[in-house]
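Researcher: We plan to redesign the surface later, but first we want a full-length starting point. Tokens attached.
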């Protein structure tokens, strides 16, 4: 399959697979329990395969020093003021010391994975060293997974496209705390203009990733 690069050098960019979204006991902005369980299971399977093929896994984890780093975002401030909005806890989400800042058990291999825990905006490239990390290791193709499809995943994929990375999104390894229709709409936007959407089985069958 032609991804537009001379030779694929891939890495996983795993977005916000942390307890703040996926562990119902501590999550401040939770996905539905069935969504969380499914996303953890599909990502664990993909990550295990990627590690077996020497494809790096990079975990991006949202982490704020204090509430001011959150509320400076004008739109987010309005969400916190709406008690009926699913994102009403945005000003209480993943502050330093909260258990939500921890990657879900079984997804992080400390001996092999990289972690960027300075993510503060939907776009994983904003105010982090993700681009430097990827380029310093010769990565030109990103396998983007995680939550939420219609915010952090979509924003990161559009940025990655503009930074000239090839992007693959395994559709069963992303999902959202919002309505299923928004997950589907985000995938439609991605496949139309920003990257390749396929299942994790199709990703793992790509000869380009292992040669």
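Model: Full-length starting sequence:
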């Amino acid at each position: 399959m032609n991804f537009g690069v001379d030779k694929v050098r891939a890495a996983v960019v795993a977005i916000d697979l942390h307890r703040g979204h996926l562990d119902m006991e501590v999550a401040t902005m939770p996905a539905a329990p069935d969504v969380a369980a499914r996303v953890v299971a599909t990502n664990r399977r993909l990550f295990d395969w990627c590690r077996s093929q020497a494809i790096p896994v990079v975990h991006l984890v949202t982490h704020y020093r204090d509430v001011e780093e959150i509320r400076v975002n004008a739109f987010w401030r309005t969400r916190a003021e709406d008690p009926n909005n699913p994102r009403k806890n945005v000003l209480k989400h993943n502050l330093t010391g909260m258990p939500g800042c921890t990657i879900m058990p079984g997804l992080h291999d400390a001996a092999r994975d990289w972690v960027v825990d300075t993510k503060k905006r939907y776009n994983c490239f904003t105010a982090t060293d993700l681009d430097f990390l990827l380029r310093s290791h010769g990565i030109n193709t990103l396998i983007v997974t995680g939550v939420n499809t219609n915010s952090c995943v979509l924003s990161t994929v559009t940025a990655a496209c503009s930074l000239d990375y090839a992007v693959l999104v395994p559709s069963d390894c992303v999902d959202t705390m919002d309505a299923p229709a928004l997950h589907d709409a985000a995938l439609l936007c991605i496949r139309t203009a920003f990257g390749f959407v396929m299942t994790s089985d199709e990703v793992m069958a790509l000869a380009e990733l292992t040669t």
